[in-house]
Automatic annotation (TrEMBL):
Protein name: L-lactate dehydrogenase
Species whose genome carries this gene: Gammaproteobacteria bacterium LSUCC0057
Lineage of source species: Bacteria, Pseudomonadati, Pseudomonadota, Gammaproteobacteria, Cellvibrionales
Binding-site residues for glyoxylate, renumbered to this chain: Y29, Q132, Y134, R169, H282, R285
EC number: 1.1.1.27
One Pfam entry name: FMN_dh
């Protein structure tokens, strides 16, 4: 932002501020995608291809963005997606984001690989948070994590299925975020030293820098290389739908399968007893060269035919995108990078400001499309036959 730009307004504004505050390897870890990052661009680009209908003279004097998901009311059809290591982007980042979400009346999902453990995040707010789970080879440890989440009051589990192995994020190798040996360590140190505000906020005041939920499993939880070895050794690539059936027996709260892109996978999730799915390609961080979730959503929604709730993420950047996702068949969306940029830029208040902006954009879009309630946003309001 320059002297003449007073306040961040868009996700891009927050992104630029985040870029200035964070060490390069951390910014690129957030910002980057898989391989040539084609899908990263397509996730957002496909939203721009969609057009909505402007409707006039329909009495839009009682606009309400509230909705209900899994029996819980939300101020708008938006939740904060699970993001690993958020506590490295701002001091105790997961707790700041959870508080921001609560202030705005929406759910927050904390990651298996968050810096703050699930109980710390849950204790920072009054409403139950969501917990995101990756399947680890050590099933006893998975059960321990579920128990910990349950004891922390978590009622909704997001089980992520699109990471049997980590995607090839080239920026992470280039910057020495992963591997790089001694040269990588020196490079990371140089990047940290050129980020004084980050050193003060996260480096000095954000301790402990561990992976809260899995700290007992990582030899030195501060060492990113050992953390990478933990992921390589513990993330279970042999997981199949029968493991979801096992998980369903272990978890009696709401179960959401995150990372579904195809209709038959969505139906398999329903068969396993999931109450919801997230149509997602992990924000373009896993497989490059695939379709965007927004392009897949109408087909998946038709196949699901209201048998479970549908969320969408990957590429949502403003309130208009939220409305487009609802018109394509989603019940709600998740935001990933947008909240992380806003938090890195402005902490809890940054996330609140971003969410208020998105809420305002949804309200204005609803008024200009002639609807007062979220459930009035249907495919009728799409002016495209693109999908
Ligand atoms: C830095 C970063 C870390 C992430 N970590 C996780 C994670 O730990 N678990 C998970 O299920 N998804 C994770 N995701 C994916 C998000 O939950 C979400 O699917 C994705 O960010 C949505 O796309 P968007 O960033 O375009 O909004 C991560 C995404 C980013 C950007």
């Amino acid at each position: 932002m320059s002297l003449f730009n007073i306040a961040p307004v868009t996700v891009d504004d927050y992104r630029r501020i985040a870029q200035r505050r964070l060490p390069k390897f951390l910014f690129d870890y957030i910002d980057g995608g898989a391989n040539r990052e084609e899908i990263l661009a397509r996730n957002c680009g496909d939203f721009s291809q969609l057009q909505l209908k402007q409707r006039v003279l329909r009495d839009v004097g009682s606009i309400d963005t509230a909705t209900t998901l899994f029996g819980r009311s939300m101020a708008m059809p938006v939740a904060l997606a699970p993001v690993g290591m958020a506590g490295l982007f701002r001091r105790r980042g997961e707790t700041q984001a959870a508080r921001a979400a609560e202030r705005c009346g929406i759910p927050f999902a904390t990651s298996t690989v968050g810096v703050c453990p699930v109980d710390e995040v849950a204790a920072s707010v009054a409403e139950p948070i969501w917990f995101q789970l990756y399947m680890l080879r050590d099933r006893d440890f998975v059960l321990e994590m579920l128990e910990r989440a349950r004891n922390a009051g978590v009622d909704t589990l997001l089980f992520t299925v699109d990471l049997p192995v980590p995607g090839m994020r080239q920026r992470d190798f280039r910057n020495g975020m992963i591997g790089g040996g001694t040269a990588g360590k020196i490079s990371k140190l140089a990047q940290i030293l050129s980020s004084p505000r980050w050193i003060y906020d996260v480096g000095l005041r954000g301790k402990p820098h561990t992976f809260g939920n899995v700290a007992s499993k990582v030899e030195n939880p501060k060492d990113l290389d050992l953390y990478k070895s933990f992921i390589d050794g513990q993330f279970d690539p042999t997981v199949t739908w029968s493991d979801i059936a096992w998980l369903r027996q272990q978890w009696h709260g709401k179960l959401i399968i995150k990372g579904v892109m195809e209709s038959d996978d969505a139906l398999a999730a329903i068969d396993c007893g999931a109450e919801g799915i997230v149509v997602s390609n992990h924000g373009g961080r896993q497989l490059d060269g695939i379709a965007s979730p927004i392009a897949k959503l109408p087909g998946v929604a038709r196949a699901v035919n209201r048998q479970c709730s549908i969320m969408l993420d990957s590429g949502v950047r403003n309130g208009i995108d939220v409305v487009k996702a609802l018109a394509c068949g989603a019940d709600a969306v998740l935001l990933g990078r947008p909240w992380v940029y806003a938090m890195a830029a402005g902490g809890e208040q940054g996330v609140v400001d971003l969410l208020e902006m998105i809420n305002k954009e949804v309200e204005i879009a609803m008024a200009l499309m002639g609807v007062n309630r979220i459930d009035e946003i249907t495919g009728e309001l799409l002016d495209s036959d693109l999908w």
